[in-house]
Amino acid sequence: MYNFNEKADRMNERCRKWDRKVIEEHFGRVPEDFIPLWIADMDFKIPETISNVFQKAVERGVFGYTYVYDEFYDAVIHWQRDMHHVEVEKEQITLTYGTVSTLHYVIQAFCGEGDKVLMNTPIYNPFYHGAIKQRIKCLYNTLSIVNNRYYIDFQRLETQLKEEKPKVYLFCSPHNPSGRVWSKQELLTVSTLCKKYHTILVVDEVHAEQILFGDFTSALSMEKDLTDNVILLASPNKAFNLGGLKTSYAIIPNPEIRKKFKTLLERNSITSPNTFGIMGLIAAYANSRQWLEAVTVYIKKNYEFFESYISERIPELQIMQMESSYLVWVNIEKTGLSSKALTEILAAQYGVLVEDGNHFVRDGEGWIRVNLGTQRENIIEAVRRIESCIRAIDPRRGYLILR
Ligand SMILES: Cc1ncc(COP(=O)(O)O)c(C=O)c1O
């Protein structure tokens, strides 16, 4: 029914992931036949359930100012109920202009001079920039690795909350870069600790729609006393490939926290939506679940291929199980190269563009992140090139025979 093997015309889209100018600013010169597996968007066309709505808007031909109409709230309420089993009320939902910007607004609304923000590392780096750009100090809770899976060090977390008193804990659920899906018990512990020490729990759930292994628990599924301390950030952007529309939302059950946040948005006139953004969100949430299920199956097959190829043929690499989304976290320590060196060689010599683990704030050395949200043929070719690259490393001298 859907053909995810079909290539979308990304070369003419001016997207950052495929644009040579952007790529060369980031990676330096790369071969003509590069394969970009870095920035987190997918190479699949959006479903017709969304593009038909855009088409009709284009035919109408007018793009005047719009407002947040009821279908937006209904779509969010139904999505959260059907997908994540949580009941949300209309007044708890606030439109925002992309989750990354929202991280910045949250810090602006709740942190002042001398305040601190807590996060687990490695982490999606706008968490760090959201704080640092407002001159707010970051506290890091390094994730522990047990049996090749990330865990939160709760003892340290409690000490940090108690002694350092961060105003806000930015929590990524599921986690980017690893895809780790946190259990209900883990979320309960995080929420309980934040409540106990009066730290607002900001949960970024943008990766919650594509769960490959395990069960996702929404931060809003805890008891009222705990959700009262939560700001939940979500958008259809990752799952439906709508990132360029810059439309997202926050759900804030506590009226006082909500009022403070909305006041900050209003001060910056973040009130009315982008015409296409609101349409896209409604069409995605109301009518595109079948497509999402199908694309998730396709991605899971990409992952299974990638995982089995690497475990059978490239013992120098070790994959952390990709429990959600389409971003796989790969340990490269056995290659003897740093993440930076391997990323640069893969880009310059083999045209395979991946993220250096060091781009995830800290604790990412020894890792790379690979985006599997693309046509299978790209994954097959990329993994062959990665194998050639690893084979060309001289283990004694850590140097490389050129391609
Ligand atoms: C954890 C996380 N939050 C937010 C975003 C971006 O969300 P948005 O497109 O809504 O700004 C990403 C994109 O990769 C992400 O990984």
From TrEMBL:
Its cofactor is pyridoxal 5'-phosphate. It is an enzyme of class 4 (lyase). Its EC number is 4.4.1.13. InterPro entries: Aminotransferase_I/II_large, C-S_lyase_PatB-like, Class-II_PLP-Dep_Aminotrans, PyrdxlP-dep_Trfase, PyrdxlP-dep_Trfase_major, PyrdxlP-dep_Trfase_small. Coiled coil: none annotated. One of its GO terms (molecular function) is pyridoxal phosphate binding. CDD domains: AAT_like. Residues 55-386 form the Aminotransferase class I/classII large domain. Pfam families: Aminotran_1_2 (PF00155). Gene3D superfamilies: Aspartate Aminotransferase, domain 1, Type I PLP-dependent aspartate aminotransferase-like (Major domain). Keywords: Aminotransferase, Lyase, Pyridoxal phosphate, Transferase. The keyword Membrane does not apply. Belongs to the class-II pyridoxal-phosphate-dependent aminotransferase family. MalY/PatB cystathionine beta-lyase subfamily. This is cysteine-S-conjugate beta-lyase.
